[in-house]
Amino acid sequence: MGIRKGIAAWVVIVGATQPAAAYEFGSPGVDQKPGIVLGGISAAVPPPGIYMFEQFYTYQATITGPGRPPGDSVPVRLNSSSTGILFVPGWSFLGANYDAVIVQPVSTLGVGSPVNSNYFGLHNTLIIPAELSWKLGDTGLFVKSGFGIYAPNGTISGPTGLSNAGHPWWTFVPSFFVSYLKDGWNLTSALYLEMNTRNTVTGYTSGNIFHAEFVATKRIGKWTIGPVGYYCGQVSDDRSSAFYHNAINVNRYNVWAAGALVGYDFGPVAVNIWALNDLHADSSGSYPIQGKTTVTKGFSVFASMSFRLWAPDDGKAQAAPRKLTYK
Q1: Are the beta carbons of 121 and 107 closer than 8 angstroms?
Q2: What's CA 120's distance to the chain center, in Å?
Q3: Among 93, 144, 274, 297, which has the minimal tally of Cβ within 10 Å of its Cβ?
Q4: Which fold has domain 49-317?
Q5: 290 pLDDT band (50/70/90 cuts)?
Q6: Rg of the chain on CA atoms, in Å
Q7: Cα–Cα distance between 113 and 283 in angstroms, integer?
Q8: Region at 95 (left for phi over 0; alpha for psi -120 to 50; beta for the rest)
Q9: 108/196 Cα distance (integer angstroms)
Q10: Cα–Cα distance measured from residue 19 to residue 6, given in angstroms and rounded to the nearest whole number
Q11: Distance between CA 79 and CA 58 in Å, rounded?
């Protein structure tokens, strides 16, 4: 994609990525776009079946931080679409309900002058082979733990493998959720950690990224409304390689955002729309070669649609698939 790390870089995830300041020169930043899961976030598991979901978002931002290019604001436009399958077989393990997920995102990116860069391609596939959800009696409390993997099978090009939506390394994503689900309330906190392996082209390893995401919605009839928010930031150092003469990026970045969600239950299909504004975005430190750091700050709008493709109580695909709803 030709976007310098000191300028900005992006890709999708469960849908997508956040341009970040603390990665390998030209890297996509975080794998999982902060806020992408807030439309269906919960520590519970829906009834047994096979579910399908579609996620879309647009991120409209500008580049900020100490390394911001001089002159006018540099616009960043990222659009993403993801298709996912959730498998809930009805299995129990250690008293928990089991599920698995696979998601394939695709994204487009445009960065304005003086960068003037665009791309369109597949992001790395997200595979979550196992999530375990425990219901804590009749308290309304649930906890869930999972482990996801981004496989390096996206659209990869360029001399460092970082010129499109994919990237040439694995990312492992352990997660932990806590939810209160009772009387129409969904009060959920979700914690994620992105742990990257080395770039197979350059040998550079980008630092780990921590996510904390929050939702506090209330169901009223067929409507669901409430505030949402997130934090995202780097929590470990990069590790350089001979490709860069062992020069290393020691900077950090932090992004805080808040917004609101509205959803409607159409019966066969559930639809959610949510939007968040980056209230604070900062970067610190500098690149040994590229200079001062940057980060993007902007506004995100997300939408999701979910429904059940098949249920074991029918023994066949349903003529009118039911939506993904949690117990």
Answers
A1: yes
A2: 18
A3: 93
A4: Porin (2.40.160)
A5: low
A6: 20
A7: 21
A8: left
A9: 23
A10: 10
A11: 4
The SS3 assignment for 210 reads strand
Q: Among residues 105, 100, 101, 99, which one has the least CA distance to residue 83?
A: 105
Q: How far apart are CA 321 and CA 327, in angstroms?
A: 17
- Cβ-Cβ contacts under 8 Å for 273 (sequence gap 6 or more): 39, 261, 262, 263, 301, 302, 303
**Could you tell me the residue ranges of all domains in the chain?**
49-317
Q: pLDDT digits over 105-137, tens only?
A: 999 988 877 667 788 999 999 999 999 999 999
What is the per-residue burial (b if ≥16 Cβ within 10 Å, else e) of 237-247? bbebbeebeee
10 Å Cβ neighbour count for 320? 9
Q: 242 phi and psi, to 5 degrees?
A: -65, -25
**73 CA to centre of own chain:** 26
Instruction: Please determine, for residue 301, whether its predicted confidence score (pLDDT) is greater than 50.
Output: yes
Closest by CA to 106, choosing from 170, 52, 164, is: 164
